[in-house]
Each structure stands twice: as structure tokens, then as C-alpha cells.
Specification:
The complex is a heterodimer of chains A (432) and B (252).
Chain A lengths: L2 H15 L3 H35 L1 E7 L7 H8 L3 E7 L7 H13 L5 E9 L4 E8 L4 H28 L4 H4 L12 H31 L2 H5 L3 H5 L5 H43 L14 H24 L5 H21 L17 H11 L5 H27 L1 H4 L7 H9 L7
Parallel strand pairs in A: 1-2, 1-3
Antiparallel strand pairs in A: 3-4
Helix pairs in contact in A: 1-10, 2-7, 2-10, 3-5, 7-10, 7-11, 7-12, 7-13, 10-11, 10-14, 11-12, 11-13, 11-14
Chain B lengths: L3 E14 L3 E14 L2 E6 L6 H8 L7 E6 L2 E2 L4 H6 L1 E5 L10 H11 L4 H14 L15 H13 L5 E5 L7 H16 L3 E6 L2 H7 L2 E6 L2 E6 L1 H8 L4 H10 L6
Parallel strand pairs in B: 3-8, 3-9, 6-7, 7-8
Antiparallel strand pairs in B: 1-2, 1-4, 4-5, 9-10
Helix pairs in contact in B: 3-4, 3-5
Classes of the chains: A alpha/beta (432), B alpha/beta (252).
Chain lengths: 432, 252
């Protein structure tokens, strides 16, 4: 191999790419700014929802509230957010249906958010059938319903306690058994579990996104710009040209992944972690989002493995494209093939076994998840590196064979990889 | 007389088309070109000029026959062929996001021009082709005339003994076309062996030392203008061309 020539061509491709806006945006800016941007969107969203919640008053009507349940009104007033309660007498027996219809109409018209209708049923005093009416298609009505349900549940428990006490029983006796749940995971473990589900998806998308434009640009783009023939006349072997192009595409994927990993660690450690912890509870019982610095080397390794593999696969498919548009449709299956295992592996019961470490892409995702949890399984890591290296070598071998075919190199082959393979595998007698 | 730089013997190229079957684009073509000589390939569109030149430049592989550049075979030794060759055509565009200087440096280095002399050679090319004010500008920002100058400069920057110009004046205005013809004449004076394809008679008449008339993939005649005139009893190249291509005498 003539590494001097490969280096010259590689640097030229890289220099050229860094002057292209799409490459800069997809390969550098998006991976780097994704997490800060996500933080900004989340923060704005939280502010917006909070402000909306604070300015909004639930309009509630309560009909026939028994004297025993006056505490319900206090509970509603104590609940977070503003509330407007209209209390009316129970409608006379003959007018109950008409009243209910009238309430339903007001709910559907948005004049009211929720209504409670009490119908007392006799002993013990306060015993009643309660109808809670709301409009499921309205966000405000759903919120009002939630507030009523919470207040009603608390009022019901308190009333039952009072009745039990009247019969000489305490709460524990009439409830028969009491359930107390206890989550043994620490906030940090819970945070890492959630991140392990979420981050690999973004990471894989970023790497694939970083490879797409360079892969198409260096193959179909060259044909479209008429520079492919210029490159073909350079005094070097075709394999050197392919090697330089591959290294360029892989570099862009790896850079996108590495930048994304670095931005991810920094964002989670500095501001995104504390912000998400507030959402999770923030009182120590919620999530603690921390990425250990020790996970960074593994994150970078996964970026290299995945970038190198995705670049090789995309170049095989993009080699058949004659225009940029054709290239886009040809590399889309690679993006789907890479994202699919991430979605599939969102099953938390999945364990990273040495056998799974032998499956490219799947192994990288599981390795990444382990790294986020602060674990390194050395055997699995070794198998992952070997399996991906073998897959990359196979892809590059196939790419070099494909680009040796004159019709493909000159762009006169009309078809894709599968049509090409079908043609090559057809019995000799049936070949054109 | 200079030595033979390009030898083409029985060069043949066939393509397969789904609907039309086997197409013989070039059939048993023979010619040679010496240093300090411009050999014109004169033919109509689709006659086989570009396919022939693409085989010599190793972009396409011959189906049969041989082509040698300074003794290097285009099939068995393509890298050495490309090293001794500069190929210019309408379909060999420049990298739009590189500057003229970067392009020339890249072509000089990859085509194995001595590294220690690359910088001075690139500056020499920039001066020779009047690119001084634009050498640092990206190719995509240049006018078509300037692009064409950069293209010639990148074709010759590694100082190859053999040059191929495939319909180089297509799409150029008169002044730029004349500039290019002048540059090609200067390169001949430098001792280069030049293969020049065109379908424009006046261009062939003005530039070429010898002309090979190609039609339907076959060479119909080769010789200098005087020889072709004598052989056909025609004065104008246009009439000579029609004589060989159609077999009809156009003189009254």
C-alpha cells in the first residue's frame, strides 16, 4: 500500500469536506450541540408547562356535597394550582337527570372543567355514590379531573378512618394489610438505567448521520460533479483511492460519534444531569444522572468501531449511486439496520453475553450501555473489537471488489448492490 | 524524428446493452504518436474517439488489442501509464471545493512529481497559465475560462511526456478556445506527444500534424493533411472527412 498517496488523497477529501456546510452541520455541529440543545428545549418546555399550570384555574362544580365531606373543599384548596369551586345543593329527585345533562353540555362546551355529583345512599352518614364528570378531549378538564380524584381519594380514606374509629377500630385494623414499596436502587443507578436506554439511540444516529453525507459525496457526488474520471486518471492504484475515501468517511463518522460522546459526558456532568434530577424528584428519591469519566474511553472506542463499520457499509451501497439522490435512497437501509438493534435492545432484561458480543452493532450498543453504567466487561469488549474488525474487513473487501468492476467505477451500471450480486451469482450461461 | 510515445494496436472495446445487445464501440484501432507531434482523432459524435482515449488513459479496459504509453501496457501497468500521461476532457472536472493551488499540488504529488520541486512547479504553472490572482480561490468560485486554465495546468503539472485532450474546446467561447489551442501548440513545442480528439474540422486543420479519421469505431485513414489531400484529391478537410466516412466524393 502506498500510504503517502493515501494520506494525500485522504487529506484532500477531508479539506474539501470541511468546506461543505452540510458536512459541518451533520458531522460536527449537531453531534456537539445536541445535548445542550436538548437541555434548552427541555428547560423551555418545563418553564412553559409550569407557567401554564400556574396561570390556569380548574373550574369545578360540586353538587350535593354531604356535610360529612366538607373536608373535600379544604383538600382541593390545598392542592397545587388555582381552583374555582362552585358548590350547589343537590338537585331535587325529579330534576337530577336534567341537571346532569346540563352539566354534560357545559363540560363539552368548555364552560366547566369537571363536576362532582353526590347522591347520598343512607347509613352511615356521608355514604354516597359520587359521579365525576369530565371531558377527556380537553387537557384542562383532564387536569381538573386528576385534582378531584386525588382530593376524593384522600377524603374517602379520612372518612373511613373516622367511621372505623367510631367502631373502636384503628386504620391499620380495617385496612387488613398495608403495602409499603421500597426501591433499593440508588438514584444514580436509576439514572444510569434510563440513560442506558436513551443515549445509545442518539449516539448511533449521530454516527450514521455523520457518515451519510461523506459516503454519498465521495462516490455519487463525484460522479455528479464529473470528478470521478479525474480521480481515475491519478497515477495510483484504485485501491488507494478507495482506501482514502473510506478513511475520510469513517473519520467523519468517528468524529461525529466522539464529539457526541464528549458533549454527552460534559452535558450530563455539568447541567443536564442536575436538571433531569429535578424532574425525577430531586429530593434524593429521584434519578441522579451522572456519566462516569471512566466511560469516556469506551464511548470513544464504540465511536471508532461503529463509525468504521457504518462507513464501510455505506460506501458499498453508495458505490452504485450515480446521483446524490440515488445515493440517499441507497444508504437509507444502513441507517435503519443500525438503529433497529438499538430499539430492539431496549429490553432491560437483555444481558451482554460473549455470544451477543459477536454480533456487530448489537455488541457496540450493549458495550455502550455497560460503559454508561460504569462497567467494563473485558471479555465482551475483546470479542466486540474482533467481531467488528472482521465485519469491517469483509465490507472493505466487498467494496474493493465492487469498485474494480468497470461499469460501476464509470457509473454505467444501472442498479443497486442486490441487482449486482444477482447478476454475478447467475449461472454463466444465463449471463448477458 | 522523435521516438514513439503511444502505440495502439488492434484496440477494441465492446459494451453490452440490455436492449441492443453487444455494441462494438471501437474496433481494431491502430495508430502511434511521437514526441513533439499532435495526432488528431477526427470523428463525428459517437464515432469512438472518447472510448479510444479512455482506454489509453486506463479509465476503461480494452476488450481486445493493446495500447502502450512509453512502453507501459494500459492493462498490466496502468499506474505507470497514468504517471506518464495527462488526460483532459469535458468529463474530467475539477474538485470544486479545493483552490487552484491545492488542486495543482495534489495532482503533482499523487502523480509522483518530485516532492522537493512540487512547490516551484506549482508556482510555475500558476504563472504560465495566468492564475496568479485566483490561485487561492476555490474552483467553484472561478469563471469557466479560469476553470479551463486550471484544468490544463493540472493536466500538465506533473510534466507527463504524453497528453490527451478529448474535445477540449467543447462549450468554450472563441477566445477561450483560441487560448487553449495556443497552449496545446506550446506543449507540442515542449516535445510532448499529444492525442487530440475533435469533430471540428478547422481545429484539426490548424493544430494537428497528423489526422486519424475515425468512424463507427474504425480508423478509416491516417496521415498528414497533404497526404490525405493527395490520397483523396480533395482540398478541404471537411471534404476529405466526408470522402472517408461516406465514401462519396463531394467535389463537383
Amino acid at each position: 500500500m502506498d500510504w503517502t498517496t493515501i494520506r494525500l488523497l485522504y487529506l484532500s477529501e477531508l479539506r474539501s469536506a470541511l468546506r461543505e456546510r452540510s458536512v459541518l452541520i451533520n458531522g460536527i455541529l449537531i453531534p456537539l450541540l445536541m445535548y445542550p440543545l436538548m437541555m434548552w428545549v427541555m428547560f423551555s418546555g418545563i418553564l412553559f408547562v409550569t407557567a401554564r399550570f400556574e396561570s390556569f384555574a380548574s373550574r369545578i362544580e360540586i353538587a350535593g356535597l354531604p356535610a360529612e365531606h366538607r373536608g373535600l373543599l379544604e383538600r382541593l384548596e390545598e392542592d397545587e394550582g388555582r381552583i374555582e369551586i362552585t358548590e350547589i345543593e343537590a338537585p331535587p329527585a325529579g330534576a337530577a337527570t336534567a341537571y346532569r345533562e346540563e352539566v354534560e353540555n357545559r363540560l363539552l362546551a368548555g364552560e366547566l372543567d369537571a363536576a362532582l355529583i353526590f347522591e347520598t345512599t343512607g347509613d352511615p352518614p356521608g355514604n354516597a355514590e359520587v359521579s365525576l364528570l369530565s371531558n377527556g378531549s380537553s387537557d384542562q378538564s383532564q387536569t381538573a379531573r386528576g385534582r378531584l380524584e386525588r382530593a376524593l381519594s384522600a377524603e374517602r380514606s379520612a372518612w373511613l378512618d373516622r367511621i372505623a374509629e367510631g367502631h373502636g377500630l384503628d386504620g391499620a385494623e380495617w385496612q387488613v394489610f398495608d403495602v409499603r414499596s421500597n426501591n433499593l436502587a440508588t438514584g444514580r443507578q436509576m439514572g444510569q438505567f434510563v440513560m442506558g436506554m436513551m443515549i445509545p439511540l442518539f449516539f448511533v444516529i449521530m454516527i450514521a448521520n455523520g457518515c451519510v453525507y461523506p459516503a454519498i459525496d465521495s462516490t455519487a457526488g463525484e460522479r455528479e460533479r464529473n470528478t470521478w474520471e479525474t480521480t481515475s486518471t491519478l497515477a495510483t492504484r484504485r485501491i488507494h483511492i478507495v482506501a482514502a475515501k473510506y478513511l475520510y468517511v469513517a473519520t467523519m463518522g468517528i468524529v461525529a460519534g466522539a464529539l457526541n460522546a464528549a458533549a454527552m459526558v460534559l452535558s450530563f456532568r455539568s447541567f443536564l444531569g442536575p436538571l433531569l434530577a429535578r424532574i425525577g424528584g430531586g429530593d434524593g428519591s429521584g434519578f441522579a444522572f451522572e456519566l462516569p469519566l471512566s466511560s469516556l474511553p469506551v464511548l470513544l472506542l464504540t465511536a471508532v468501531l461503529l463509525g468504521a463499520l457504518v462507513a464501510a457499509a455505506m460506501m458499498i451501497l453508495a458505490a452504485f449511486a450515480r446521483t446524490f439522490k440515488e445515493g440517499q435512497s441507497m444508504v437509507t437501509p444502513v441507517i435503519l439496520l443500525v438503529i433497529f438493534p438499538v430499539l430492539l435492545l431496549n429490553d432491560p432484561s437483555m444481558t451482554f453475553t460473549p455470544a451477543l458480543a459477536g454480533i456487530p452493532v448489537v455488541n457496540v450498543v450493549l458495550l455502550l450501555r455497560q460503559a454508561i453504567a460504569g462497567n467494563v466487561l473485558w471479555l465482551q469488549l475483546g470479542v466486540t473489537v474482533l467481531a467488528n474488525a472482521a465485519a469491517i474487513a469483509a465490507c472493505l473487501w466487498l467494496a474493493s471488489r465492487i469498485l474494480r468492476v468497470e461499469e460501476i467505477a464509470t457509473g454505467s451500471f444501472e442498479g443497486n448492490l442486490f441487482q449486482f450480486l444477482r447478476q454475478k451469482l447467475r449461472p454463466a450461461g444465463r449471463k448477458a | 524524428m522523435s521516438t514513439v510515445q503511444v502505440e495502439v494496436q488492434d484496440l477494441t472495446k465492446s459494451f453490452f446493452d440490455q436492449s441492443r445487445g453487444e455494441i462494438k464501440a471501437v474496433q481494431e484501432v491502430n495508430f502511434e504518436c511521437r514526441g513533439g507531434e499532435i495526432l488528431g482523432l477526427l470523428g463525428a459524435n459517437g464515432a469512438g474517439k472518447t472510448t479510444t482515449l479512455r482506454m489509453i488513459s486506463t479509465v476503461l479496459q480494452p476488450t481486445a488489442g493493446t495500447a502502450r504509453v512509453l512502453g507501459h501496457d494500459v492493462v498490466s501497468d496502468p499506474v505507470e501509464v497514468r504517471r506518464n500521461l495527462g488526460f483532459y476532457s469535458a468529463s474530467t472536472a475539477l474538485y470544486p471545493r479545493l483552490t487552484a493551488r491545492e488542486t495543482l499540488t495534489l495532482f503533482a504529488r499523487v502523480n509522483k512529481y518530485p516532492a522537493e520541486r512540487t512547490k516551484s512547479r506549482v508556482e510555475e504553472m500558476i504563472e504560465r497559465f495566468g492564475l496568479g490572482d485566483y490561485a487561492g480561490a476555490r474552483i467553484e468560485k472561478l469563471s469557466s475560462g479560469m476553470k479551463q486554465k486550471v484544468s490544463i495546468a493540472r493536466t500538465v503539472v506533473h510534466d507527463p511526456p504524453v497528453l490527451i485532450f478529448d474535445e477540449p474546446t467543447v462549450g468554450l467561447d472563441v477566445l477561450n478556445a483560441l487560448d487553449l489551442q495556443k497552449a496545446i501548440q506550446e506543449l507540442r513545442e515542449d516535445g510532448k506527444a499529444i492525442l487530440f480528439s475533435t469533430h471540428i474540422m478547422s481545429e484539426a486543420e490548424r493544430l494537428c500534424d497528423r489526422i486519424a479519421i475515425i468512424d463507427k469505431g474504425r480508423i478509416r485513414a491516417t496521415g498528414d493533411l497533404e497526404g490525405l489531400r493527395a490520397a483523396t484529391s480533395q482540398h478541404y478537410l471537411e471534404d476529405i472527412f466526408v470522402h472517408y466516412v461516406t465514401g462519396n466524393d463531394t467535389t463537383e
